Amino acid sequence: MNQEQLEAEVRRSLARHAATIDAGPGWPPEEEVLAPHRAGRGVVWWPIAAAVVAVLAVIGVVLTIRHVASDRHRPATPVTVTRTACTTVLPQQWQRAIDAGTLPSQMILGGAPDGAILVRRGVGTTQQTVLIAPDGSTRMVDERPELGRGIVEFSLIDRKWIVLPISSAAINSQSVAELDVIDRATLHLAERIPLGAGNHVDGWALFSDHLYWTESGRVVDHDIPTRQTRTVVAGRAHGLLGSPTGVAWTDAQNVTHPLAGSRPDQVPGRPGTHRGLVSDETTYAWLSGSDIAWYSAATKQTVIVSGVAGRNAGVTLQGVAGPYILVSLDTDPYVGRIVDSRTGAVVLVDLVHLVHSGNGVFAADSLRTAILHVDRLPGLHC
Amino acid sequence: MDAGTVTLTGFAREHSIGLTRFAYVLTGDRQLAQDLVQDCLLALYRRFGETLPLGAPLAYARKTITNGYVSRLRRLSSAELITDIVPDRPLPPADSTDQDAVWRVLATLPQRQRAVLVLRYYVDLSDAEIAQTMGCREGTVRSLAARAFAALREHPALATDAEEHQP
């Protein structure tokens, strides 16, 4: 079959299967579906704002009086700094670093807290999974035919282990057939975990020598060193949330239940929950109203950067690496923004979808796939 | 269509089936296709309300559906982006009993390769338009297409099928 015939076959197949669909979802949906997506219509904000201002004014007066009245020496406390964002031109050194870190025809599968990045690349009819160390050196982790033995999907790495979810090639590339656990030091296969035929595995996380996955609603906890497996949630889980500091599962009502470590929306040592929290293990960023908050666990300092996006822009924090935060906006799907929390300076980059951040590294893709060592670059200023 | 004159309800009435067909050939999964289209309509509503100030709402919707599909496994992997929403139901397998070899091979392709074929041969977009839809370069589109065809040619099921279709 020549190229032209093959293209015609593809065209026919797609058209034939498309024609089997004779209905789409109804619109508008039920009110309870629609209501959460309605953006603050009809809410009168000025009485709330006035009340907040009045309360803050009272608190301010009280604190001022207490401060003036106090004659005790107080130790320095961590300070919250507020900065206003300012957009600046991407420095040439940054552009050169992005160009140098670009990985043509490769796909980022994951990354480790030390900044090592795992990528998948096609070489002829072979797919290779390669670990790129922070110094740029590479090690082959897995090699298999492009077709016939599954595809390596988005993977998990920590300082000790690499976990490769292998999708089933036979049925559908979105179903995972096995989890390959690899000793990161030796790159030897430590264990191959076959997953139940017919079960659907759609989430996996690695934390503190334990591998977790969801399998048809149940959450499984696998102790890698002892190879002991146990079901920790039976048939009620709708998702699994992993972060550098913990693992949790979510139920049908999207309520989060911690499994190990801290909750995915909590910063260790800080009270409360944090919306859109991202972390590289040492620094954290989250959404605070329409502002972006950044926090360093080392210095205990919090920085609030305001004005990165408009009020209704739909901000997603993609990741944080040291003082830098990678942000995407719904209104600008192909352009990411890197915010320097030290200055509030913002630059536009063609990296949007972060796959990993850690140890001063952003590994992201969109118009290009690239590893960017932001810790080796000069700070951003307006 | 003039920007600002399209209502979301009218758009959904006119294009719901077409978008679901597109989502189905993109994913190979009927339920997921319905979900992606519903998510797309909700995203349009969340961002614009009932009036769509878009010059090309259909292209925008296709882009949203394509990105939703391509990024799906990444969201599910939960390796880093801890705030993303996880799906509320498991994926049934693709139509594994289907006798169409091309369709079966399409189900084994990585998402981006399959998306390129669907956008090129079902929607009839140019490579430049596909690049814009997928948020990548034209060269990447051609590379993905080439790899997809290499897979199609080498797959045993299609090879058999191809022989059967030889005159």
Mean pLDDT score of chain A, rounded?
Answer: 84
Largest interface in this structure: A-B, 92 and 80 residues
Shape of chain A: globular
Number of helices of chain A: 4
Helix content of chain A: 10-25%
Strand content of chain A: 35-45%
The profile of the biggest β sheet of chain B is: 2 strands, antiparallel
Strand content of chain B: under 5%
Radius of gyration over C-alpha positions of chain B, nearest whole angstrom: 17 Å
Oligomer: heterodimer
Q: Helix and strand string of chain B, N-terminal first?
A: EHHEHHHHHHH
Instruction: Tell me, rounded to a whole number, the average pLDDT of chain B.
Output: 74
Q: How large is the count of helical segments of chain B?
A: 9
Global structural class of chain B: mainly alpha
Please list the strands of the largest sheet of chain A in the order they lie side by side.
1-22-21-20-19
Distance between the termini of chain B: 46 Å
Q: Tell me the number of strands of chain A.
A: 29
Give a verbal description of the structure:
The complex is a heterodimer of chains A (382) and B (167). Chain A has 382 residues and is mainly beta. Chain A has helices spanning 3-18, 31-34, 46-69, 92-100; strands at 80-84, 86-87, 106-111, 117-123, 126-132, 138-145, 151-152, 156-157, 161-167, 176-183, 189-194, 201-207, 210-215, 218-223, 228-233, 239-243, 246-250, 256-261, 275-279, 283-288, 291-296, 302-306, 315-321, 324-329, 332-340, 345-349, 351-358, 361-366, 369-373. Chain A has four helices and 29 strands. A five-stranded mixed sheet of chain A has the order 1-22-21-20-19, with no helix packed on it. In chain A, strands 2-26-25-24-23 form a five-stranded mixed sheet, with no helix packed on it. In chain A, strand 19 and strand 20 form a beta hairpin. The longest helix of chain A is centred in the N-terminal third of the chain and has 24 residues, at 46-69. Chain B has helices spanning 8-27, 30-48, 57-70, 72-77, 101-108, 111-121, 127-134, 138-154, 156-165; strands spanning 6-7, 51-52. Chain B has 167 residues and is an all-alpha fold. Chain B is globular. The termini of chain B are far apart.
